User: Fold these one by one.
Assistant:
Number 1:
Amino acid sequence: MNARTFSFEFFPPKTQEGAEKLRNTRRQLAQFKPEFFSVTFGAGGTTQEGTLNAVLEIRQEGFAAAPHLSCIGSTRANIAEILQRYRDHGIRHIVALRGDIPSGMVDVGDFRYANELVSFIRETHGDWFQIEVAAYPEFHPQAQNAEADLRNFVNKVNAGADAAITQYFFNADAYFRFVDEVQARGVNIPIVPGIMPIQNFTQLARFSDMCGAEIPRWLRLRLQSFGDDSASIRAFGLDFVTELCDRLLQNDAPGLHFYTLNAAGAVSTVWQRLGL
Ligand SMILES: Cc1cc2nc3c(=O)[nH]c(=O)nc-3n(C[C@H](O)[C@H](O)[C@H](O)COP(=O)(O)OP(=O)(O)OC[C@H]3O[C@@H](n4cnc5c(N)ncnc54)[C@H](O)[C@@H]3O)c2cc1C
C-alpha cells in the first residue's frame, strides 16, 4: 500500500488570543508528525494576510504548510500576485478552490470554477506547486446533478491536481462509492477523506446544511437526544468518528485530513484511539 497522508486544517486566527490558541493547538498536533498543516482562505481574499502569516509561522516552526487559495471574485492579476508571494516564500503546496460566493457579490471575477484556477496555476508555475482540490462524496450542494458533479470533478483533476481532500461526511459508503466512480472515469490521484470531529450538535447541523454534508437520520436523532449534555455529545462523537476513520483506513483510504477548527482535543483523542 502507498504511504498514507495525514494532515490538519486550521483557519487564520483573527485576534492575538486566537493566534496564541492556535500555536498551542499546533504544538499538540505536531507530535503526530502530520505531512502538512493547511490554512483556509476567506473567499474574496478576506483572509489573504492572515492565511499567509499563519502559513509562514507554521514553516518557521519547521513544519510543512499548505495555504488554501479560493478564486471566486478575484482577477487573474490578484491570483498571480498571491501565487508569486507564496513562491517567493518557498511555499510549494496549495489547496486550490473556487470558494463560496459571498452574499451580495455581483462580480464573480476572472475564475468561475476551481478547474480554471488549477489550470492557471499549472500554466503560470508549471510543477512548482503540489495542488490539492476539493471533492464531494455526497455531491456539491450547487451541483446541477450527480453525474455533472462527477464530470466536473474529473475535469478539475485533469486540469492538473495532484490529490484531493473531501468535504466531511458521516457515511463511509458515500466516500467508497465516489472513489469507485471517479476511478472508473480514469482518476488515479489520492482522495483523502476530510474528517470533522463531532463537538456541538447545533453548530454541526448548521455547517452541514450549508455545505451539503448529510447527518444520517439515526445519528442526528442520537445526537439530539443528548439535549444540552455536551459531554455526552462529545463522548458519542468521539466513538463515532473513531469508528468512521478506522473503517476508512481499513478499506485503504490514502490518509485522513482533519478539520480541527483550531482545537487539538478531539482530533488528538481520535488519533490516539486509532493507534496511528
Ligand atoms: C477540503 C476543502 C477545503 C476548503 N477550503 C476552503 C477555503 O479555504 N476557503 C473557502 O472559501 N472555501 C473552502 N472550501 C469550500 C469550497 O470553496 C466550497 O465548497 C465551494 O462552494 C466549492 O469549491 P470547489 O473548489 O469545490 O469548486 P468547484 O470545483 O469549482 O465546484 C463548484 C460547483 O461548480 C460545479 N462546476 C464545476 N465546474 C463546472 C463547470 N465547468 N460548469 C458548471 N458547473 C461546474 C461543480 O459541480 C460544483 O457544484 C473548502 C472545501 C473543501 C472540501
Number 2:
Amino acid sequence: MNIPETGLPRIVVIGGGFAGISFIKQLRKQKVQIVLFDRHNYHTFQPLLYQVSTAGLEPDSIAYPLRKIFRRNIDFHFRLAEVENINTENNTIETSIGSLKYDYLVLATGTRTNFFGNESIAENSMPMKTVPQALNIRSLILQNIEKADITPDEVERKRLLNFVIAGAGPTGVELAGALAEFRKGILENDYPSLDEDEMHVHLIEGQDRVLPPMSEKVSKKAQHFLEKLGVQVHLKTLISDFDGETVTTKDGKKFHTATFIWAAGVTGAPVKGINGEALVEKANRYSVDQFNKVNGFENIYALGDIALMKSEKYPKGHPQVAQPAIQQGENLGKNFKKILKGDKLEPFKYFDKGTMATVGRNKAVVDIGKMHFGGAFAWFLWMFVHLWFLVGFRNRVITFFNWTYSYINYDRAARLIIRPYKKKSPSLHKEEEAAVSSSVEA
Ligand SMILES: Cc1cc2nc3c(=O)[nH]c(=O)nc-3n(C[C@H](O)[C@H](O)[C@H](O)COP(=O)(O)OP(=O)(O)OC[C@H]3O[C@@H](n4cnc5c(N)ncnc54)[C@H](O)[C@@H]3O)c2cc1C
C-alpha cells in the first residue's frame, strides 16, 4: 500500500467523519504515524445534506477534501478505500487496495441507512446518507416536477407532485419544510402552468409527535410550523411497503408517489472481523469503555456513532449526533498524547450543548438545557451554529452567501439536473444497500 515505515507508532483510523477528523486534529504535532481510510475523499457535513437534496446548497459547500484538512500533519497518509475486514489476530486491516498492519486501530465508521429489513422499501425508496444520495434526490425531485409540467393525465400528474417522507426526526422535518418552501417560492414562479395546490408534501411518523428526540414543547411548535407551510403530518402511522408507485401504511392508508424519501432510521456501520462481546448486534455498535476502548481489545478504539458507551445517564449509549462524535474524538486524541507520555487517561464526559432543527425561513426550534424555544431567533441561532461547524472557510463563506441570497430572493439556486437520476444508481454503495439486512429499530 506504499505507506512508509517511519518507526513511529502507526494509528490507523477508519472514517473521516466528525469523530475521525476531530481525533486526528488533536495529534497534529505528535510523534505518531496516522493512516486515514475513507471510501470518500471528502468529509461530509451530514446535517446539511437535506439542503443539497432540495437545491438550497451545492454539494461542494458541505463537503471538504480530507487530504486538505490534514495537509499540515507531518506523518499523515490518506487512502481512498473501502475497509473490508479487520484481522485482530495479527493487527491487520484488509481493504479494497490491499492490507496494512496497525499498532492502534480507531474505528469511526458512523452509521448507514436502516430499512428495518424491508427489501422493497430498500429497493425503491430514496435514502439520504451521502452526497451522491442527496444529489439523486435533488435530480429526482426536479425530474418529477419537469415531467408533471408536461403530463396531461391528472392522476399521474398528482402522483409526480406528491412527495412522501418517512420519519419525522430532524432530517424528515427539515426535508418536508424545505419542500414546502419550494412549492411556495419556486413552483408558482418557474412553473406557471402547474397548480400549486396539486403539489403535496406528506411527512409520516410512527411515534405520536414530530421530532421525538426533542422536548414536547418544541415538537408541538415544529408541527405547527410544518402545518403552516402546508405539510401534511401523519403521526402514529407505520409504513409497511413501497412498491415504487404506492406507499402503504399498516393502517391501510395509500399514498401514490413518484418520490419517497426514507429518513426513518440509521444503524451502525461496523466492519467485519470484530464480533462477540465487542459488537452489540442489536444496535450494530461497538461496545466501548469510558476511554472509548473496544471491549476485549487493548489497541482498538471506537468513536462517534459506531461507539456504544453506556453510562447511568445514557444507558443506551450517547445519541447518534455530531457532538458526541466530535467530543469523543477530541478526548481520545488528548488521551493518546497521555498514552505516549505514560500519563493517566481522562474518561469521556459528554457535554450536551443542546439540539436544534429548522423547518424553514424564520422557523426553527431549539432545546438547550431547560430552555425550549422556536421562531426567528432560533432560526438565526441554527444558521450560526451550522456555519460555525462547517469544515473550511470557503464553505462557510459560500454557504453564508447562498443563504443570504435565498433569504432575499426566496430562491433555491442549485436547481440543476446535472446527472439525471436513474433507478439503481451506481452511486449507492454496497454497504448502504447491505443495511437492508439490519434489524434495529431507530
Ligand atoms: C441526513 C442527516 C442529517 C443529520 N443531521 C444532524 C444534525 O442536524 N445535528 C447533528 O448533531 N447530527 C446530525 N446528524 C448525525 C451526524 O451527522 C452524525 O452523528 C455524525 O456524522 C457522526 O459522526 P461519525 O464520525 O461517527 O460518523 P460519520 O460522520 O458518518 O463518518 C463516518 C465515515 O466513515 C466512512 N466509512 C464508513 N465505513 C467505512 C469503510 N468500511 N471503509 C471506508 N470508509 C468508511 C464514511 O465514508 C464516513 O466518511 C445527521 C445525520 C444525517 C445522515
